[in-house]
Amino acid sequence: MMLPADYHMHTPLCRHAVGEPVEYARHAVAIGLTEIGFSDHSPMPQDDFDNWRMFDRQLDEYVAKVRLAQAAFPQLTIRLALEVDYLPGHEDWIRALAKRHPWDYFIGSVHYVSDSWDIDNPAKLSEWKKRDAYEVWQIYFERLTQAAQSGLFEIIGHCDLPKKFNIRPTQDCTALYELFLTAAAQAGCAIELNTAGLRKDCREIYPARNILELAFQKNVPITFGSDAHAPEEVGMAFPEAISLAKSAGYQKTLRFKNRKREVVALSPA
User: N or C: which end of the chain has fewer CB within 10 A?
Assistant: First the structure.
């Protein structure tokens, strides 16, 4: 099976990943990938914003590490990207980041539902006990919708991230999904099939099948990402992700270069 590009992977600069980009690239070649993209957590305007991203002064170092991997593995297409947190009011910062290097794509992700609560942070798991799950999902998807509408991103990352700890609302969230996916479709923004969910408490690829089926109905394109934080996680569970995508109706995926898309076919199983 020809595997699609793995467009979501990190580096030690984010302070919670291991292995240098050359090691990720080496594993990608070993498992038969022909294209990958590094999309580490972007810096914030303040270096003390949280403890799971590179410092602003390290952005050039990050680019240099990716360039080193590109030089070491010329047989592998390696894209340069960032995973950028979307927070209302940070749009100018994201536009400034976009000008600093020749990026191939930006993944827009929502981790924060307030200025201080990153909902996927294990150190803040107790916060969930203080909140109504549906309220959290509602705020999350409102911000995700804004991210899609912003036009700042080629891809939206792990679009049902609140399920990470398997805390789910009892209410029907379909209306939230509909608003977000409509915005993504109108903006021409893709969503990713992120296999990291299989390694979390939810034990499920991001997004869930019902969201993916809605995305297909609305002609929202897809990409694939392992969200690798270690070299051996590159391309992890991609056959399962491809199977999920095809079962929802997808036969195509996207590639990116210089923030321009190319539609490519998903290979037969």
Answer: C
